[in-house]
Structures are given as C-alpha cells and as structure tokens.
C-alpha cells in the first residue's frame, strides 16, 4: 500500500495537555479519507501536523514521502482548508485568485473560474463582505485550484447550508477522482462522509481507535441481539459496546469468525459504528482523559 501520510508514535503536547498521543496510522494514497471523533479528540492537531503548521512533540509524520512543509515544492503539493476558512478581508475574490496563481506553480485558472461560477461568487467582491459560507467556498476554491496531490479539509462544510454542502461534495468527488487527488476530510456530519469517503479514521481522546476501508470495517462489525448473557462467553468476537435488559443482551461486535446462530445478527451502519467506538472509549476513559 502506498501511503499519502504515515504517522508513527506521533504526539503533540501543549503545556501539560496532550492534544495527540501515540498516534500511529497509515493513510493510503488515492482515497477519500474521513477523520471523525468528538470535539477535543485531536483531529485538528493531526491535520495541522500533516500540513506542517505544528511540529511533533514525540514520534514522526511523513506526508507525500517527506517531512510536512519541508520545501516550497512539498507545500505546493498539499492543499489545506482550515476550520476557520481564513481569507484576506481587504482583497477581492479575484485578487485571491491572482495571489493563488503567483504562489502555486500548478495553479489552474480553469478550475478556479469554474468553482467561482458554481458557487456564485462575484470576483469583484471583497472577502471581508462575504458570508461565512461564501468565505468557505473561496477557501475551497483556492485549495482545489492549486491542483494538489493531497487535499486536507478541516470541517470545511460547517458554514454551508445543506443544499450547497451536497453540491460541493459532488463537485469535490468529480474533481478529485478525475485528478487522482488524495483527500483527508474532518467532519462531524457522518452522512456527508458516507457519501464521499472510502476510508475511515476514528480518533478519540487523542488516540486512533479504528482505521481502515469503510466497506471492510462495516463488513467486520455486526449487531447481535439475544437472550441475556455474559459477552465473555462469545468466542471469536471483540465486543465494542453492550447493552442489557432483564431478559435481552444487545452487542455491537467486531467478529473474526461466524457468530453463534442463536444470536439475531444485523448489519451496522457507518454512523452506528462511529458512535459505538466513541461511546466505548468514553466509558473507559479516566477523569483525566475525559478532561482533555
């Protein structure tokens, strides 16, 4: 597997607080990767390490075969949209595009113009007068038009309304598939990720809890319902979450072999899978970890 990003024992500490800890993960090239987890899990920290805005406290990270932001050439291969979608308030939309052209050797005016048209942005409008959603569209345009090998998006859709968000996701898929761009996108909206992602990384309490192809992960997890019993008696399965009533047990498991037919078995959706891992880890966290 060719990895667009490799992290090994990666950690970042701010004062006494570890924002990311013991993060080891390989993200395959040519995929659209969803990064999910609760607030404070370390998602933004991981992405900022990946684009070279932060330096690791421990461990290491490699992006596109090199150290993040190690050179102008490496920077030109990575497109990044921060959660705050920063723009220069005094510059017009057109001046942002001209700046993008000067700073990026692979800049594509055709892509930039097409995205402006689809987003309905006036090239003469100053960025400081744009709405939150329009600023997000401008930031996304700048990132896509530089024709990166890796596109890193940190909650890029939070300022967009549902219709615009869906249209953007469709456009993102079309442009990245045609160009062979790898994408890492962080979002709280699982339904958005389900539309575009084929790989998933779940980050909870600063650590990677699950990573892999979405189809494979869904195929290996099942919900089991049956008469109340001790989950420890279930062979060949890792119990992620469990719920009991007086007569019934409900489990979400990662099964490594066929399950006892006495259980009623059902498939698991992506949102249920993500929430199960978040719930399981929250139940096992110490008070200190919960405060992170």
Automatic annotation (TrEMBL):
Keywords: ATP-binding, Nucleotide-binding, Transport. It holds the Pfam family ABC_tran. Coiled coil: none annotated. GO terms for molecular function: ATP binding; ATP hydrolysis activity. Residues 5-230 form the ABC transporter domain. The keyword Hydrolase does not apply. The keyword Transport applies. SMART domains: AAA. Belongs to the ABC transporter superfamily. This is ABC transporter ATP-binding protein.
């Amino acid at each position: 597997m060719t990895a667009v990003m490799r992290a090994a024992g990666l950690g970042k500490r701010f004062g006494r607080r570890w924002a990311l800890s013991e993060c080891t993960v390989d993200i395959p090239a040519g995929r659209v990767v969803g990064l999910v987890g609760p607030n404070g899990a370390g998602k933004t920290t991981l992405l900022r390490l990946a684009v070279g805005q932060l330096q690791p406290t421990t461990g290491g990270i490699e992006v596109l075969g090199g150290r993040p932001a190690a050179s102008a050439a490496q920077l030109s291969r990575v497109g990044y949209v921060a959660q705050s979608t920063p723009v220069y308030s005094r510059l017009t939309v057109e001046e942002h595009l001209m700046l993008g052209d000067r700073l990026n050797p692979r800049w594509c005016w055709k892509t930039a113009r097409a995205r402006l048209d689809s987003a309905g942005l006036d090239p003469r409008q100053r960025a400081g007068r744009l709405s939150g959603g329009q600023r997000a569209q401008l930031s996304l345009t700048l990132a896509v038009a530089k024709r990166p090998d890796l596109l890193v998006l940190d909650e890029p859709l939070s300022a967009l309304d549902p219709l615009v968000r869906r249209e953007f996701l469709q456009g993102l898929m079309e442009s990245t598939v045609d160009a062979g761009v790898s994408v890492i996108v962080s979002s709280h909206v699982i339904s958005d990720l389900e539309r575009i992602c084929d790989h998933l990384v779940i980050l909870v309490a600063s650590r990677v809890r699950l990573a892999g192809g979405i189809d494979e992960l869904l195929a290996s997890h099942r919900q089991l319902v049956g008469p109340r019993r001790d989950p420890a008696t279930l062979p060949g399965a890792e119990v992620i979450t469990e719920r009991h009533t007086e007569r019934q047990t409900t489990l979400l498991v990662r099964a490594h072999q066929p399950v006892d037919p006495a259980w009623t078995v059902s498939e698991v959706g992506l949102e249920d899978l993500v929430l199960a891992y978040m719930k399981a880890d929250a139940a096992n966290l110490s008070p200190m970890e919960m405060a992170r």
